[in-house]
Write a structure and sequence with these properties.
By secondary structure, this protein is an alpha/beta fold. The protein has 6 helices and 12 strands. Helices cover about 25% and strands about 30% of the residues. The structure holds glutamine.
Length: about 200
């Protein structure tokens, strides 16, 4: 397969920016809002945004179970920021009140515990250069916006990047997650790595 089709979960969040980055990285792209659209993609990006909203909409659109099934069946998926939270097997909330006291559902797939909003609030957003394992050609500019960090990982999850002692990028088999937003930088190397993962899974 030379040009894989990578969907972007288009319920909420920075969907357009992921389309642009994926296209620049050599993928066909399409929006995923319905189970039929999910069934047609070779891989999926879960964008940054608000993970509680994305999660609620995924349930409302009848997508949560199909998402879990495809991830279990080995579909490559990449989550940035809120997307990282959605791909975590377990979530901790820095401010439990913001979750409305309700358990937040995730798609899961990566054996990790992710702490939401761990790097602080909107006005504590920041950028930092990161060495990301698997990305050649120098550091990636990490854009962190109300970003989560990975509190702990299970045996099968590999840490790809660390900032300030906290894991901020993880890969487990065909699943990739970053606390930061490479789709906002114009540097498409992380998306290129994911598109390669999609190609490899389909080969
Ligand atoms: N930039 C982001 O995606 C922020 C994620 C957001 N704090 C959440 O918990 O969903």
């Amino acid at each position: 397969m030379s040009t894989p089709t990578v969907g972007v979960l288009a319920l909420q969040g920075d969907v357009r920016e992921h389309f642009a980055a994926l296209a620049a990285a050599g993928a066909h792209t399409c929006a995923v809002r319905r189970p039929e659209e999910l069934a047609a993609v070779d891989g999926l990006v879960v964008p940054g945004g608000e993970s509680t909203t994305i999660s609620k909409l995924a349930v409302a659109f009848g997508l949560m179970e199909p998402l879990r099934e495809r991830v279990r069946a080995g579909m490559p998926a990449y989550g940035s920021c809120a997307g990282m939270i959605l791909l975590a097997d377990k979530i901790l909330d820095a401010s439990p009140v913001s979750a409305g006291g309700q358990e937040q559902e995730t798609v899961g797939g990566i054996d990790m515990i992710v702490r939401r909003n761990a790097f602080g609030r909107q006005n504590e957003s920041f950028e930092a250069p990161l060495d990301v394992k698997g990305v050649e050609g120098g550091p990636v500019e990490g854009v962190f916006i109300r970003a989560p960090w990975v509190e702990s990982t299970g045996e099968r999850a590999e840490t790809l990047a660390v900032h300030d002692g906290h894991t901020v990028a993880v890969r487990q088999d065909a699943l990739l997650a970053t606390s930061f937003h490479p789709e906002l930088t114009g540097d498409h190397r992380v998306h290129a790595m994911f598109v390669e993962m999609v190609r490899a899974a389909a080969a």
